[in-house]
């Protein structure tokens, strides 16, 4: 890129010196030195850069700095931010360099401007509350928003330097972000300019028509206003009130809005004039009374409209705006009269910044107070009602993140990837395995931040788990997870109820509602579903349960007492496994099958006496048994299967399931865990369903029963049953 010529550098230098002279009376040498340092860096990095229309880029930055200082009343930090606001995104200057040479505040401004400039807004409504709050959530210094407003004002003044696509976005930001904000800040002249620029581009014919009619009638307007003001001036002189009077035609957009609202032609709009009476040399303690004195003089001459009285001197606007407004009738015309002091007028011209500068000598303190108020204004801004209420809370409790398509989602602060997934869709949340966040892989626990672009990753094998409730923060996600867990609990409860009824049958105990009630009371449970779920998940000690039920019977002779040589039958959650003989007069102990090795008749087994008095049956080659033998050798006993036989029976089972990837592997793993051989297998697909027919070898009916139940519990399996 070619450097600026000597002539171009001279033009830039001259403009910059004029700017420095304009701020010399309100800023000290240290502040100006700070600005000068930022300007020189911009000059170095942007040397030779031209605008779209061929203008000098540095002149644009100087003009924006002038808007900040002289049209709004902002100070050194904001001006430094203007010279540097795009430098990290457009040159090789880094944020670390900005922080080291200009301080953390400047780096936050530059970083914040980059964030809001990089927002993908194609699918986002600029009118939405979410959009405004997204802006606020992305920045750490409110000056960023003010610089954005200044930049957009410059763009509207220099349409030729903005390409067509970018200008459409610019118009939306001006209408739905900038105009409401400058209105609340009391920057009415800037607001008027924004509104007129927007109308020029959106309704050019109507703008020119009203403009021409105003121009044609200008001589009549001047005559009308001179006649209107003459008696007011005389009255002010008679009362020795020093003042000066300004008048103007109301803005073209406001006239156009009146025409549309009232469905009237221009000629029938009478309330198009505004007069401003500015009182000179009014003492602070006498400002209010001076304004009301002038009001009395005006309304003694002209008839006021009581409905149009606006008292903003008793109760100023949140922007600091103070003025007394009345609308009076002169012949057939209604004319608005604004009455204020010189101090009030400067605040009205420069908005909130001027208001806070009047509050005290400590400029740093008042600037910080003003910036805090600006943030409050932005956070409380209601696009639908532009009222003057101010939120007392500055804390944002929401974040705003984007989908891969650019749609904006609102979530609470602290929301995770999993929250976002459930916000999109329940199925996506249920199968969420992580996410691609801003191009980086993140787990489901990753906490999101405003402006993140999130692409959810899913796995069809994934299902919600109870510990997910500790991951999510939104009620929507919590409810979806709880619903799934409840459904699973119901399914398991169905299995548990079947197991419980089978045990009662084996124990020769009839089922009654009273019996269930007593059990729930004993275990401090609220429902039968909860009890059956505990049975299915083996969280109920079967031996204790049996003893409790038997204790409810008055006739203990019917309990089925066992003799020393009796064979004990298992009634564990896993189901009956056959008959076992236990030696050494311990045959009255109930036994259960070890879940770690799943022994079946035909396997070599030993028994381990548990602390509850029962016996757990392990395979002799079980890895857990080695540790048990080492720690508790005295609790190992000999056991054997009655009618020990290795004879195996062939059984054909049918499995119907959803056609999902990995389902066959899950089925095979379950069968393997039961040490069951698969002799033959046949698979076919019908209407997105997989149907499997398998011939397996089992050595007893109880093993088969357990296997079928386990297969049915696999996610995606619809039905399982034996064919022969």
Task: Write a structural description.
This protein is elongated. The strands form five sheets. Strands 1, 2, 3, 4, 5 and 6 form a six-stranded mixed β-sheet that branches. Strands 12-13-17-15-16-14 form a six-stranded mixed β-sheet. The protein is an alpha+beta fold and 724 residues long. Helix 1 (6-23) packs parallel to helix 3 (57-72) and helix 7 (104-117) crosses helix 9. It folds into six domains: 6-187, Orthogonal Bundle (Hypothetical protein af1432); 208-350, Beta Polymerase, domain 2, CATH 3.30.460.10; 398-473, Ubiquitin-like (UB roll) (Roll), CATH 3.10.20; 474-552, no CATH class; 562-644, no CATH class; 649-722, ACT domain (Alpha-Beta Plaits, 2-Layer Sandwich). The chain has 27 helices and 21 strands.
Summarize the structure.
The chain is of the alpha+beta class and 724 residues long. 48% of the residues lie in helices and 16% in strands. The protein contains 27 helices and 21 strands.
What is the CATH homologous superfamily assignment of the largest domain?
Hypothetical protein af1432
Number of domains: 6
- Which secondary-structure class do the elements indicate? alpha+beta
Radius of gyration: 41 Å
Bulk shape: elongated
Layout of helices and strands:
Layout: H1 6-23, H2 29-45, H3 57-72, H4 76-84, H5 87-90, H6 95-102, H7 104-117, H8 129-138, H9 143-157, H10 164-184, H11 188-202, H12 204-216, H13 218-238, E1 243-249, H14 252-262, E2 273-279, H15 287-301, E3 303-304, E4 310-311, E5 324-330, E6 333-341, H16 342-350, H17 352-357, H18 363-380, E7 398-402, E8 408-412, H19 417-424, H20 426-430, E9 432-437, E10 440-442, E11 454-458, H21 475-506, H22 513-522, H23 528-536, H24 542-551, E12 568-569, E13 579-582, E14 591-593, E15 605-609, E16 615-619, H25 623-631, E17 636-641, E18 649-658, H26 663-673, E19 677-686, E20 689-698, H27 701-712, E21 717-722
Parallel strand pairs: 2-6, 14-16
Antiparallel strand pairs: 1-2, 3-5, 4-5, 5-6, 7-8, 9-10, 9-11, 12-13, 13-17, 15-16, 15-17, 18-20, 18-21, 19-20
Helix pairs in contact: 1-3, 2-4, 3-4, 3-9, 4-7, 6-7, 7-9, 9-10, 10-11, 11-12, 12-14, 13-15, 21-23
């Amino acid at each position: 890129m070619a450097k600026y010529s000597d002539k171009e550098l001279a033009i830039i230098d001259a403009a910059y010196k004029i700017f420095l002279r304009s701020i010399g009376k309100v800023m000290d040498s240290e502040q100006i030195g700070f600005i000068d340092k930022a300007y020189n860096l911009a000059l170095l990095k942007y040397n030779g850069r031209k605008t779209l229309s061929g203008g000098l880029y540095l002149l644009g930055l100087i003009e924006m700095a002038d808007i900040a200082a002289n049209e709004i009343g902002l100070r050194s930090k904001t001006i430094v931010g203007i010279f540097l606001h795009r430098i990290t995104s457009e040159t090789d200057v880094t944020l670390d360099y900005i922080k080291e040479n200009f301080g953390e505040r400047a780096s936050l401004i530059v970083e914040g401007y980059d964030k809001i400039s990089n927002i993908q807004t194609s699918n986002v409504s600029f009118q939405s509350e979410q959009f405004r709050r997204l802006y606020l959530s992305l920045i750490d210094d409110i000056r960023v928003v003010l610089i954005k407003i200044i930049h957009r004002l410059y763009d509207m003044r220099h349409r030729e330097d903005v390409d067509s696509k970018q200008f459409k976005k610019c118009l939306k930001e001006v209408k739905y972000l900038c105009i409401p904000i400058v209105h609340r800040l009391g920057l009415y002249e800037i607001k008027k300019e924004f509104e007129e620029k927007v109308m020029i581009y959106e309704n050019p014919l109507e703008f020119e028509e009203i403009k021409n009619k105003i121009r044609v009638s200008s001589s009549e307007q001047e005559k009308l206003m001179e006649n209107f003001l003459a008696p007011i001036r005389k009255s002010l002189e008679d009362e020795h009130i020093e003042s000066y009077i300004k008048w103007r035609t109301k803005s073209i957009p406001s006239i156009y809005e009146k025409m549309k609202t009232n469905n009237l032609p221009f000629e029938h709009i009478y309330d198009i004039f505004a007069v401003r009476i500015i009182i000179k040399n009014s003492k602070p303690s006498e400002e209010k009374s001076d304004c009301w004195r002038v009001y009395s003089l005006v309304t003694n001459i002209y008839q006021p409209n009581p409905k149009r009285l606006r008292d903003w001197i008793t109760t100023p606007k949140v922007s600091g705006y103070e003025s007394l407004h009345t609308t009076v009738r002169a012949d057939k015309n209604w004319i608005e009269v604004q009455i204020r002091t010189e101090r009030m007028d400067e605040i009205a011209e420069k908005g909130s910044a001027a208001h806070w500068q009047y509050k005290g000598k400590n400029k740093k303190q008042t600037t910080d107070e003003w910036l805090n108020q600006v943030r409050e204004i932005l956070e409380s801004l209601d696009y639908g009602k532009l009222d003057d209420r101010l939120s007392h809370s500055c804390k944002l409790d929401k974040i705003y993140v984007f989908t891969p398509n650019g749609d904006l989602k609102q979530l609470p602060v602290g929301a995770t990837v999993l929250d976002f997934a459930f916000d999109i869709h329940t199925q996506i949340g249920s199968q969420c395995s992580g996410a691609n966040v801003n191009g980086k892989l993140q787990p489901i626990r990753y906490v999101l931040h405003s402006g993140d672009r999130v692409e959810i990753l899913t796995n069809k094998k994934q299902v919600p788990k109870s510990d997910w409730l500790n991951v999510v923060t939104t009620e929507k996600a919590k409810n979806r997870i709880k619903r799934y867990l409840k459904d699973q609990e119901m399914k398991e409860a169905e299995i548990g109820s079947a197991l419980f009824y089978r045990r009662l049958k084996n124990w020769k105990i009839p089922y009654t509602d009273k019996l269930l009630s007593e059990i729930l009371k004993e275990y401090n449970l609220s429902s039968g579903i909860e009890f059956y779920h505990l049975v299915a998940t083996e969280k109920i000690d079967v031996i204790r349960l049996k003893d409790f039920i038997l204790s409810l019977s008055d006739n203990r002779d019917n309990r089925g007492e066992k003799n020393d040589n009796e064979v004990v039958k298992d009634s564990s959650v896993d189901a009956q496994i056959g008959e076992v003989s236990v030696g050494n007069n311990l045959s009255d102990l109930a036994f259960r099958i070890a879940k770690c090795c799943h022994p079946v008749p035909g396997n070599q087994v030993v028994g381990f006496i548990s602390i509850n008095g029962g016996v757990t049956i392990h395979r002799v080659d079980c890895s857990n048994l080695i540790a048990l033998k080492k720690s508790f050798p005295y609790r190992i006993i000999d056991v054997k299967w009655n009618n020990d036989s290795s004879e195996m029976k062939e059984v054909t089972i049918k499995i119907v399931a959803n056609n999902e990837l990995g389902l066959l592997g899950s089925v095979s793993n379950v069968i393997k865990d039961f040490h069951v051989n698969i002799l033959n297998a046949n698979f076919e697909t019908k209407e997105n369903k997989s149907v499997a027919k398998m011939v397996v070898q089992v050595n007893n009916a109880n093993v088969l029963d357990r296997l079928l139940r386990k297969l049915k519990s696999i996610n995606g399996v619809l039905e399982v049953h034996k064919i022969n």
